[in-house]
Structure prediction request, 78 residues.
Amino acid sequence: MAPVLLSRTLDPILGIFTGIFAYHLYETNPRTELPEEQKLVNLVRWKMEKSRNERAHKAEEEARDNVDWKEVVAEAEK
Prediction:
């Protein structure tokens, strides 16, 4: 098992903070700055919008395909 640097609780927190801070520096450094449409915030917003549209489209299809089975049975018994 690897040795503990600070404590068993603080080590993962320090690792997560370091990773987030490194990614922030990567996105904001003038030499490595990404175009606006490729930044993480915009990519997450695009993905959420895409999934929201897919869910809405799927709900519309389900609403269109929804059949009232009581009516179908009533018509079949006539």
